Amino acid sequence: MKNLPVSLLILLILIGACSTTNKLANEAIHYAIVGQNEKIIFKRLGAPSSVTNTSDGGKVMLYEYQSKGMYTTPNKSKLTLNYTGDRANTEPHLNWQYSSASTQTNAPEYTIYQKDISVIKVFLDKEGNCSRIEHNLTKDELEYFYKSFKQFVPQN
After folding, report:
1. pTM here?
2. What domains are defined for the chain?
3. Cα(15)–Cα(34) distance, rounded to whole angstroms?
4. Where is the signal peptide (predicted)?
5. Residue 13: what are its φ and ψ, rounded to 5°?
6. Closest residue by Cα to residue 109 from 69, 74, 70
7. What's the distance, CA 132 to chain centroid?
8. Do 124 and 130 meet the contact criterion of CB atoms below 8 Å apart?
9. What is the CA radius of gyration of the chain?
10. How many whole angstroms separate alpha carbon 47 and alpha carbon 17?
11. Which of 75, 43, 49 shows the shortest CA–CA distance to 61?
């Protein structure tokens, strides 16, 4: 039982460290982007995937980042289609036949990667300055942006 408080303390420190990393990354992104004009944002983030105009004269710049997730190799089956009947008939008779040959494969052309898309939305006012940002970046992407933008965080 004596080890329980020590384990709990270590767990709390680890949870605090994770939340601190996210907080620092969000802070670095905020200082690097919010309040900056469109040219500076373009230099720091690159060209946006899309830009839409808002009704108040501002813009929303959308940045998309793709990453590969886990790969899956699905079962592959040969699918053959045999058509019997009149092609002019409105209700054609289709006969689907499945072959059990070659049901599994590791060939690269059958490998499917899950694509995760992270988004940063940069909201510009009518003067072209960033008023706010929204994102759904992963932890790895947050760490990348923290390393890139930590020099913009003011030192207390």
Report:
1. 0.60
2. 3-152 (3.30.1450.10)
3. 28
4. 1-25
5. -65, -40
6. 74
7. 19
8. yes
9. 26
10. 33
11. 49
